[in-house]
Amino acid sequence: MTIEEAVARIAAQGESAPRLARDPVNPAMINNWLEALGDQNPRYAEEGVAPPAMAQVWTMNGLHGQRAEDDPMGAMMAVLDEAGYTSVVATNSEQNYRRLLRHGEHVAATTRLDDVVGPKRTALGEGYFVTTTTTWYVGDEVVADMLFRVLKFKPKPAQSGVLRPVISKDTEFFWEGTKAGELRIQRWGDKLRHPPGPMPPDGDLDAKPDWVVASGRGTVYSYVVHHRPAVPGKKLPFVIALVELEEGVRMLGEVLDVDTVGIGQPVQAAFVKVDEDLTLPAWRVAE
Question: Which of 109, 15, 9 minimizes the C-alpha distance to 57?
Fold first, then answer.
């Protein structure tokens, strides 16, 4: 069976059977989410509702979960794996929220295959763009939906050089800033966010972000000394630190010219030029 024939067969099956969430919408999971994202909006606790962007959380399979047999994404991934397209990267996700979910509601999700486009030549390698739509229900009511697209590709042969970030329309301003010697932080109104994202913390769909330039000063919040495995373009071992900037956000980067650091140690932003197109943010221990 050709890839095109497999696409037609899987698409003709339509939506998968509803997959019921393991747990109802609950405040414990909401609190964990809010803490992880640093979201302090009191509305969720006061009104007994969940952040809209949690729609996908409720129906995740979990650490040891298995895809359903009629899951179209799983079926399409297996077809492309067999054809040699063994690597995958998510390219974009578009979510629509019909209303906020309330404590105690039990969510179910269905997924359909929309299209598969390819083969296409990309910077990552030749591949196929696979698009699905997932719809979330409470009973018969549609509460959210998501268009999700991945690139399933044949990786290019390994090359020397550094690992390069995937730059999107949401992060382009940040990488333009590093080329200019600036740490730019996304701003939604009076709220700062890093890493940058497509949605504001309060879920306002009409809001538009801008950015501010950070001072570059901060302290080590956490760190790791990386010994293995090998990393392209890096001499082992090296230190990666999560730094809490003066502005309140946290940012990852290599700490240059040291063997280790300490929690709370002051650092200053540095910039490592890789080539004309890429400059990486890094840290130096402050004098």
Answer: 109
